[in-house]
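seq as requested:
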Amino acid sequence: MHRHTADSGVDTGESTDADQTGTTAPARTGAVVTSTFEELARALPNEMAVLRRKLTHWLGQLPLDPGSTHDITLATYEALANVAAHAYPEGNGWARLQAARTGDAVTVTVTDTGRGIPATRPRQSGLRTTGGRGLVLIDKVTDQSDIDTGDHGTTIHMTWRPAALRDENPP
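struct tokens:
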């Protein structure tokens, strides 16, 4: 199944960087701070770059250190680039980017409804290939990453627990 239209109520990524309708300001729920971000965009390289900029803007509203912001942005862009490059060989599809800060963790989820990640990729002898390191990179810069893939598409969940978000006065 391919998503051809945006869900109602979800920003399709056509807004300007100044118009961040896909984000919500941090809110306190008891002692837990929650802030969310969600965007849906066509799975095209330039649209993935727009999502990266919007995520970076959202992350800039959190009390993160530059290293954590870099790791979150880098891993997320790798996941988004994989959607643009591999999920939809016919060229029509969408990528959904969701992020949330809950307590001392930032979670990012990238979802597509494309063809999924093959269990093994065929390699030709002597052929130089590019890529193939994005998932390894994601695994290295996250505290936890999980991939669900198949004919239904691919969902990558990534979690970070940056020191800057840890409550200095735990209960």
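The CA atoms of residues 43 and 49 lie 10 Å apart.
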